[in-house]
Amino acid sequence: MMEKIFKEPEGIFYNGGAILYAITAYVIGFLGLFNSSIIINALATLLLGHAMIIAAYLVHECSHNLVFKKIRFNTYLGRFLSWFCGSSYGTYEDIQHKHFRHHVDNDDVVWFDYEAFFEENPTVFKLTKMLEWFYIPAHEFIMHFIMMFSSFIIPQRKNQRSRNSAVIIIRFSLFLILMLLFPKVGVLYILSYILLLTVLRFMDSIQHDYPYNLTLFTREKAPRKGQYEWEQEHTFSNPHSFDIEAINWLTLNFGFHNAHHKNMTVPWYRLPKKHREFFGESPENIIPFLSQLKIFHKNRVIRIYGNHDDNAPSGRDYLIAARKGETTGGNAASFLTSF
């Protein structure tokens, strides 16, 4: 029965297990926030945050229709899991559309010009930099705020205001009740969500070396559309470990990004093998984890603005610099933001 539903027979174990984990870990993690033990609270916060992370990467798999054979089942699951990772304010279809534009156009296709926003709001920019210095993902908070009220901010989404309002009322009411009755739980939930935002942008920040383009709602011809060699040259892989593949399950192998861009029809559990088939066994083709940490720590403030200037390395030079931890990385490029 399950073999007729899942995209591949192996998906029953891998995707079925990931779905079961995301739901179970979310429930157990959330309930653990109510416990009187500080240790259990800490573990539950981490578990809840990781459940959100797995849910987010499953949304990504669903957007590529890689979980189930029928597209509508992928859509149903993607919509459902978007509630877990806080991206339900907008539509799953908008997330999918923007992400496919990223793949097809070979570009970071966006609507929101956050650099212009910071130029027009210097006080917000200063506050964002201060918070980011303390590892608080303020830039992502801005993106999340826009996502929450997207139909009231983005003109092209105004037809979604009824749905957007309903989701806002539901989520805000539940969170308000939580904060009033169990303030500790509300704060710990926020910490779990911060973990989600931090991990997603940690993974996204160095996977491409090109700036964003304000073409989400335009009909401009994508200049790099179909340039597959260029796509691979400017896409980079950042697994947690190249030798111990199971560690990468923590983010559903999202770090094997070159393999994902090489063939979007490959599910997450086959990406490490495909990476080796496409690019060989040499670790020179990936960015080491310690270098990833160095880039994330060293550039946590300066990458907020102007992280793709003309003098920045690109292509092979970017990979060499990134392997040494000497590049800046990007920001606010999560696939969960649909603008």
TrEMBL record:
GO terms for cellular component: membrane. Residues 42-289 form the Fatty acid desaturase domain. The keyword Isomerase does not apply. Keywords: Membrane, Transmembrane, Transmembrane helix. GO terms for molecular function: oxidoreductase activity, acting on paired donors, with oxidation of a pair of donors resulting in the reduction of molecular oxygen to two molecules of water. Pfam families: FA_desaturase. The chain crosses the membrane at residues 12-32, 38-59, 71-92, 133-154. One of its GO terms (biological process) is lipid biosynthetic process. This is Fatty acid desaturase domain-containing protein. It comes from marine metagenome. The lineage of its organism: unclassified sequences, metagenomes, ecological metagenomes.
